[in-house]
Design a protein that fits this description.
The chain has eleven helices and nine strands. With 279 residues, the chain is of the alpha/beta class. The strands form two sheets. Strands 3-4-2-5-1-6-7 form a seven-stranded mixed β-sheet. It has a two-stranded antiparallel sheet with strand order 8-9. The radius of gyration is 21 Å and the shape is globular. The C terminus is likely disordered.
């Protein structure tokens, strides 16, 4: 190699960001270090080694964003993605988002999953989806996963977070499953350990979204406890499911927790055109 070629190569190398150089030279299974010291039991680097994998096979038809199809449902989730990006990026990036609902069966977990996948398949965003619905965890089930450990083990047994992360190969999506169900997880969710984990995920992965799926707000205290540690909350409302009074009561609990918006789910809209009704 001539001196000119060598100089050009070195110049190009210097222009690469330190993160790019790390990703190029570090083995896939090696933990990548960061200048910022890691909290005890938490990963010291990024998700790079978790991303270069074959995508998992998803059979659930409700996860429309996981398929490379341009359907109306996918477009609606892409609109939601654009709205979330616009509302969370400003002088300070609100990257920790909580998804909840008034009562059960309003589609909050499915919404959290489809939003996370839509964000993860967009070029600029890496996403960590955390299942904090410890009463009825479902993220792993919708994805067809059978995790042996998860968030519960990180909280109860001090398992390092990186031991529980699951690579999906779907865009840049990484999942932290619940691991197992807990009958009464309020103490666990209000613990200093979880606060440390949320703070560490926010600061360590400051340029990526961390989305938390939570239990419904009205029957349980879990969502209210978690909201105090989040940058913003997304509220899912399924048409015909919760009563108006219940919805207003639940929303009132989040008025001081940066309620980002309400997602109206499973809506039926009829309009008349040429004497025909369209669904």
């Amino acid at each position: 190699m001539s001196r000119i070629e060598e100089a050009l190569r070195k110049a190009a190398s210097r222009r690469e960001s330190p993160l790019d150089q790390e990703a190029e030279h570090a083995p896939a299974s090696e933990e990548i270090n960061n200048q910022k010291p890691a909290a005890p039991g938490l990963p010291a680097g990024r998700f790079d080694s978790l991303l270069n994998v074959d995508p998992i096979k998803i059979d659930n038809l409700m996860l429309a964003t996981s398929r490379d199809e341009k359907t109306e449902v996918v477009e609606e989730y892409n609109k939601l993605r654009s709205a979330v990006i616009a509302l969370t990026k400003g002088e300070e990036f609100s990257n920790t988002l909580m998804v909840t609902s008034t009562v059960s069966e309003e589609g909050k977990s499915m919404t959290a999953l489809n939003l996370a996948i839509s964000l993860a398949k967009e070029h600029d965003h890496t996403v960590l989806l955390v299942d904090t619905d410890l009463r009825r965890p479902s993220i792993h089930r919708f994805l067809g996963l059978k995790p042996e450990v998860g968030l519960v083990h990180c909280l109860r047994d001090n398992l390092p977070i990186e031991k529980a992360l699951i690579k999906t190969g779907i865009g840049k999506l990484v999942v932290l499953p619940a691991g197992e169900s807990v009958r009464d997880p309020v103490d666990m969710l209000s613990s200093n350990r979880l606060k440390e984990i949320i703070r560490e995920l926010k600061e360590r992965y400051a340029e990526r979204y961390v989305i938390f799926d939570t239990p419904p707000a009205l029957p349980f205290a879990d969502a209210g406890v978690l909201a105090a540690n989040m940058d913003a909350t997304l509220f899912v409302v399924r048409e015909g499911r919760a009563q108006r009074e219940e919805l207003l009561k639940a929303l009132a609990e989040f008025k001081d927790h940066n309620l980002l918006g309400v997602i109206y789910n499973d809506a039926r809209t009829f309009f008349k055109k040429h004497d025909y009704y369209y669904y």
